[in-house]
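Reviewers of the previous submission asked for a worked example of the structure-prediction workflow described in the proposal, so we include one complete record here. The input consisted solely of the amino acid sequence. No template or homolog information was supplied to the procedure at any stage.
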Amino acid sequence: MRKKRQSFLRVIILAILINEGSLHGYLLYKKILHHTCMKWKPSIGTIYRTLNEMVREGLISKHRGDRRHNYSITPKGIDYFIKNSKTPITRMAGVLTTVLEAYSKISTEKPSISSILTRDLREKLKKLSEVLEKHSL
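From that input alone, the workflow returned the following structure tokens.
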């Protein structure tokens, strides 16, 4: 289980760096908490240990910013991300599809439950839809 969490942590760190560019460690930590809705809270020590391992492996680079070290993804990190994110994305997509189908069925069969999809969830689904639409074949 620890290895799976470590692998997931690496993938989410790389995804954040791809999307956000160069960031310092504490901001990466805050973004992980935000993206996981604080349901998964790796310790700050785990984050920095993982960042240092990823630097040693050449997945990310570490450079001195104004007051802190910043981290950026490397080409090797992009390759790692592509190779290691497919399986979790496929699993999550299957679960997400099933859950969304259930929400759709409930809202169709019980229209009185209009608040089943919260504003936050609707916004995230809209963003997901936009990303999928932008990159569909």
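The mean pLDDT is 83. We consider this example representative of the routine output the project will generate in years two and three.
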